[in-house]
Structures are given as structure tokens and as C-alpha cells.
Amino acid sequence: MVPTFRTATLAGDSVTVGELPDSAARQVLFVFNTTCPYCRDIVPLWHQMADSLNRLGRVQVLAISLHPADTTQHYVADHGLRYPVLTFPRPKLVRLYRAVAVPQTVVLDWTGTVLYAKTGTLDSASLDSVYAAVSDSSER
Fold first, then answer.
1. What share of the chain has pLDDT > 90, as a percent?
2. At what angle do helices 124-135 and 37-56 cross, to 10 degrees?
3. What is the largest CA-CA distance in the chain?
4. 29: buried, middle or exposed (CB in 10 Å: 19+, 13-18, 0-12)?
5. Which of 24, 84, 107, 132 has the fewest C-beta atoms under 10 angstroms from its C-beta?
6. What is the Cα–Cα distance from 134 to 96, expressed in whole angstroms?
């Protein structure tokens, strides 16, 4: 399980990471930093996957930057990120989420239990694993 935290997205919306009101809901987190070339290269795939996951319903897609909000805001604008983006509100959370290496893709259930986690770029097998972890919620 990951620690739950409440923060605001760069757009100012309140969000709770690691806790959802519906037991069938899932969160998919994309952890990145603004200087990582692998993170930048995977942005188009994140867009495609986020769009697909959002159509499933009960899936909240979030991107979490390891850099400060002002730096991240420029990155979001430059790369057209279309899903909620936030930063870790406390440095300790970066360690607790083991977010030292990026990019990371993490799927959480409604209680913050990690259903899938991968550090590095995504390939077709890892995409299948993300969809499988998310789809498990729709079968309940």
C-alpha cells in the first residue's frame, strides 16, 4: 500500500491519491520529472493510454511530477498533458512512493494497494498489464 495524500492539481482541483470512494475504482499514476528524456518520449503513449482508460470509467488518471509546480507547469504546456497533473506536496512522499527512477506507471485500487507498478518505458506487455489491473475493477 502507498500512503494516501491530498493535494491540488496544477489546475487547482483537489485530489486524493491512494484513496477512492468506490471499491471498483482505480487510479493510474504516471510519475515523471521534467528533464527525463524517457519521460518525454513516453508522453504520446501516456496520452493514448489515458484517453483509453478514461473511457472505461471508474479510472482516475493522474500524472505526478517530481519537480516544483512552476517548472512542471511549463512542461505540461509544452507537452500538452491532458490529464490532471500534480506534484508531491512533501519530499518524504517521493521516497515512500519509491519514485527515484522515472518514468513510473502505477495502478492503485481504491485503498491505495499497488496492483501494478513498472519503472521505465512501456511496451505492449506492460500496457496489457496496466489494462488488466484496471479491468479487474469492472468485473466486480
1. 72
2. 40
3. 40
4. buried
5. 132
6. 23
For the chain, the average pLDDT equals: 91
Alpha carbon distance 54, 2 (integer Å) = 22
pLDDT digits (tens, 9 = 90+) for 6-61: 999 999 999 999 999 888 999 999 999 999 999 999 999 999 899 999 888 889 99
Q: Are residues 19 and 2 in contact, defined by beta-carbon separation less than 8 angstroms?
A: no
Three-state SS for the chain is CCCCEEEECCCCCEEEECCCCCCCCEEEEEEECCCCHHHHHHHHHHHHHHHHHHHHCCEEEEEEECCCHHHHHHHHHHHCCCCCEEECCCHHHHHHCCCCCCCEEEEECCCCCEEEEEECCCCHHHHHHHHHHHHHHHHC
Task: Could you please state the CATH topology (level 3) that the domain comprising 24-134 is classified under.
Answer: Glutaredoxin (3.40.30)
